[in-house]
Amino acid sequence: MHQDRRGLDITAASADAVAAFDKTIESYLGIMPSAGPHLKATFEADPDMPMAHVLKSYFFMLMGTSALQDRSQKAAAQARALAKTALPREVLHISAAEHWSHGRKHAAIATWEAILVENPLDVLALRLAHHGHFYEGDGQNLRDTVNRRMYAWTPDTPGYGFVKGMQAFGYEETHAYDAALRAGQEAVDAIPENPWAIHAVAHVHEMRDEPDAGIAWIKANEPGWTIANNFRYHVLWHRMLMHLDRGEYDLVMKLYDTELWDAESDEYLDLLNDASLLLRLELHGQDVGAQRWQALADKCRAHTTDQVLAFIDVHHAISLSAAEKDGAKALLAAMQNYAETNGEDNATVTGYVGLPLARAVVAHRNGDYDKVVETLLPIRYELYRIGGSHAQRDLFAMLLIDACLKCDRVNVARMLISERLGRLPANDWTKEQARAAGLSA
Fold it and tell me: Who has the most CB within 10 Å: 204, 231, 291, 421?
């Protein structure tokens, strides 16, 4: 019997296999491009290691495409074939991989939580539970799944800084901003190469409308996030939001073209970052040009029938409808068919929130602003169900305000603007909308 870096028993053929597996987990926590090569090394050291097959299944699901979901199911099946040699904790991981790869996200999250009851140092289960709650829009469990385990973690525990980074993000998403800043700073002090923690603190500055402090933080910690995989683009995206807040539109356009846009990338997070940034620029009154939208839509078109996360589909609707008038028609049809015929947990969310939101996005692009208001206003407090962060979903609050103003629903616009000013009293975009609605700002 072998043990991992945190003293958990693990089924493996050799210490070399465990060492390679530990490196894979470390790379995953650090959002590093080395995670794949380290997993490959794990398989080379032990082709029959149950947790290697489980991790392979998890990694495929993290990619967020239907084609890789099929491969995730196969990897989970291979792990199940090795279950007789696995430990009870590992068997639970096998079950979680089966649940997740077959669209039973709620059951997967419950299984990770069950693992953590007896194994609070299982950092893989912890990170995946954190991820799962994030895409459930469950901020309290995003925070508390980490806090429930902190009794077992000390600054000397390997990976402590990564766990503090998760804690920081959970605090931020539940508006405990001072606690988030403390946890995030401690996380980066413990492990400077810590993109998730750096990003958590960036979120705090975005939500507090502190663009100067946020840009300074991101720049000061560049060595800790630029070494990440494509997640580095997301940290840059946060910096670009803050430049938007300062009205530095030319700089944002330049950063989009030279640093954010990756012509070779098909990663879903990159497609979401790009769509969200371009639409925000337009809401700030900037012309982003048809070419940028078309290049993005060309990528999104290949994912019309994925339906892995409603959050992803809604952003594809932004890009596809921006590129051409009926560009999102096939996507909306696929989402509707999925919601009506599929039994996955995400299908329920798609039908309840994702599809109406996607239709509102398309209606906005088509200039049907009354439809945007009629569709989006009744569900705006349900949008958390598609997952994502407050900062990411704020785009749809901006879209609703813009639609209200453009269809002369001035009192509704005033209500929403007043609400937003309560949270962001110094935000220039919000004050501009207030002036347009005849309010003093």
Answer: 204
Burial of 123 (0-12, 13-18, 19+ CB in 10 A): buried
C-alpha torsion sign, points 44, 50, 55, 56: positive
Q: Bridge partners of 9?
A: 3
On whether the CB atoms of residues 339 and 314 are closer than 8 A, the answer is: no
φ, ψ (nearest 5 deg) of residue 419: -60, -45
Q: Could you give the CA distance from residue 104 to residue 310 in angstroms, rounded to a whole number?
A: 14
Q: Give residue 340's identity as a one-letter amino acid code.
A: E
3-state helix vs strand vs coil in the chain, percent to 5 = 75, 0, 25
Alpha carbon distance 244, 250 (integer Å): 10
Query: Given this model, what pLDDT does residue 441 score?
Result: 66
* Beta carbons within 8 Å of 217's beta carbon, 6+ residues apart: 198, 201, 202, 205
Nearest-10 Cα torsion for 395, 396, 402, 406: 150
> Dihedral sign, CA of 4, 6, 7, 8?
negative
171, containing H or E segment: helix 160-173
Type of residue found at 302: A
Q: Is the pTM of this model over 0.85?
A: yes
Computed from CA positions of residues 300, 34, 10, 156, in that sequence, does the dihedral angle turn out positive or negative?
negative
CA dist., res. 190 & res. 94, Å (int): 31
The pLDDT score that the predictor gives to residue 1 is 76
* Contact between residue 338 and residue 350 where contact means Cβ atoms under 8 Å apart: yes
Joined tokens for residue 93? 């991981």
d(CA 104, CA 361): 28
Phi/psi region, residue 307 (left: phi>0; alpha: psi -120 to 50; beta: rest), is: left
pLDDT per position as a tens digit, 397-419: 999 999 999 999 999 999 999 99
Read off the pLDDT of residues 105-164 as tens digits, 9 standing for 90 and up.
Answer: 999 999 999 999 999 999 999 999 999 999 999 999 999 999 999 999 999 999 999 999
Radius of gyration of the chain (CA): 22
Q: Is 50 helix (H, G, I), strand (E, B) or coil?
A: helix
Sign of torsion over alpha carbons 35, 38, 44, 45: negative
